[in-house]
TrEMBL record:
This is Nickel-dependent lactate racemase. It comes from the Bacteria. The lineage of its organism: Bacteria, Bacillati, Bacillota, Tissierellia, Sedimentibacter. It comes from Sedimentibacter saalensis. InterPro entries: LarA-like (IPR048068), LarA-like_C (IPR043166), LarA-like_N (IPR018657), LarA_C (IPR048520), Ni_dep_LarA (IPR047926). One of its GO terms (molecular function) is lactate racemase activity.
Length: 425
């Protein structure tokens, strides 16, 4: 038997599997990469040597209003390390700067006070100006033009009114934007719901270039780049993290050039070749990305690439925060025929895209390839409403998968962290 640890919430569960059934364990080399210096020094070194940009302290000189875009509670960005260094560097160049930390919630729910403390620490939460973006608050939004896609670019006016706009973030594989980080701080991070919907239209989600690890020719990425330039995003600090959420690499500087350098580093470590199997087991890397079913679709897309057609995906995601969106949930609860739903999405104009349609569209693509057994803390009915099969343990899920396939020796490929790898066919 082989024992494999799988992240689940803030803990791990163990999977015991017969060696002869185990086709492969697909892991990113990120888990083995050991930087020569510590996390803080990595970020500081990146900021001391910005790519394609002046240092942040120099950019801050003479700037009155400075806005730092920060990721929200759904992203494991090590802000306790990054943010103090950014604040220090800004004040080094301009001690009197009026600084606002703008939380990039995209279309997610509001980040709570407790989540802010967990993210930044009490000192920053108690002493810095923090504003949480609301994509539906028209009073705080401003129109900046028309995206290449034809959608309207509308962003938070605090960012638009800033004399200097900068961002922190992290780079990981992204299932339709290619990679996270960089330009995503603006779109979807601080954009209006209308703008996000246009960018995430069915045509773009269906585009074969809108996939993990692809930037060139990716229409979603193109929109995001245009938006970030229009918003004057001048500087970023982005990191790459390992399974323990520790910084192993950092870049700083120009939004495009620094991000590209970070993506290049990540790609070398986390590309893995698909090993087809009857059953593929994946996770969302544990907390914070496995808090709801909505986010768990990301980890499923890694399994999608390597599971055989009509096979079974076992997805582990604690989902202690529920399904992640009423519209997303209702889409699957209210229609038994997912092909009808997909046809409806594809018939919609990009400017008529509805909330969470993109996630539903990708999820339908997964469901069309394989049955999904969902291991979570969610109630069984909710899981079944999503056209999935509920299970409370990986052992129970594996047994159900064998029953579905009618094969107690069905082959298995395991992806311990489905959001940290780029599985390539």
């Amino acid at each position: 038997m082989t024992s494999i640890k799988l992240p689940y919430g803030k803990e791990h569960v163990s999977l015991e599997i017969q060696e002869e059934r185990l086709n492969a364990v697909l892991v990113s080399e990120l888990h083995h990469y050991k930087p020569e210096v510590g996390q803080t020094e990595l970020v500081k070194n990146a900021m001391d040597n910005p790519i394609g940009s002046e240092k942040l302290c120099d950019l801050a000189k003479g700037k009155e209003k400075i806005v730092i875009i920060a990721s929200d509670h759904t992203r494991p960005v090590p802000s306790k390390i990054i943010m103090p260094l950014m604040l220090e560097e800004i004040r080094k160049g301009n001690p009197e700067a009026d600084i606002t930390i703008l939380i990039a919630t995209g279309c997610h729910r509001e980040t709570t006070k407790n989540e802010l403390v967990q993210k930044f620490g009490e000192e920053i939460v108690n002493n810095e100006k923090i504003y949480i973006h609301d994509c539906d608050d028209d009073s705080m939004l401003v129109k900046l033009g028309i995206l290449p896609s034809g959608g309207e670019l509308i962003i938070n006016k605090l960012a638009h009114e800033a004399d200097l706009l900068v961002a922190e973030g992290f780079i990981e594989p992204h299932f339709f934007a290619g990679y996270s980080g960089g330009r995503k701080s603006v779109l979807p991070g601080i954009a209006s719901r209308q703008t996000v919907l246009a960018n995430h239209c069915s045509e773009f989600i269906a585009d074969p270039k809108s996939r993990t690890g692809i930037l060139e020719g990716n229409p979603i990425h193109k929109d995001m780049m245009w938006a970030s330039r229009k918003a004057n995003l001048a500087y970023i600090v982005n990191v790459v993290i390992n399974a323990e959420k520790e910084v192993i690499y950092a870049v700083a500087g120009d939004m495009e050039k620094a991000h590209a350098k970070g993506c290049e580093f990540l790609s070398k470590l986390c590309r893995v070749k698909a090993v087809p199997a009857d059953i593929t087991i994946s996770t969302n890397g544990g907390y914070p990305l496995d808090q709801n079913i909505y986010q768990a679709v990301k980890g499923m897309t890694a399994a999608e690439v390597t599971v055989k057609q009509d096979g079974v995906i076992i997805m582990l995601a604690k989902s202690n925060d529920g399904h992640g969106g009423d519209v997303f949930y209702n889409t699957f609860r209210d229609e038994a025929d997912i092909k009808k739903t997909l046809d409806l999405f594809m018939s919609r104009d990009r400017n008529k895209t509805e909330a969470d349609q993109w996630q539903s569209q990708v999820f339908i693509r997964v469901l069309q390839k394989a049955r999904v057994i969902y291991v979570s803390d969610s109630d069984d009915q909710t899981v079944m409403d999503f056209h999935m099969i509920p299970a409370k343990s990986v052992e129970e899920a594996l047994k159900k998968a064998e029953e579905i396939l009618g094969n107690s020796k069905a082959t298995v490929t395991v992806i311990p962290d489905g959001v940290s790898v780029m599985v390539i066919e």
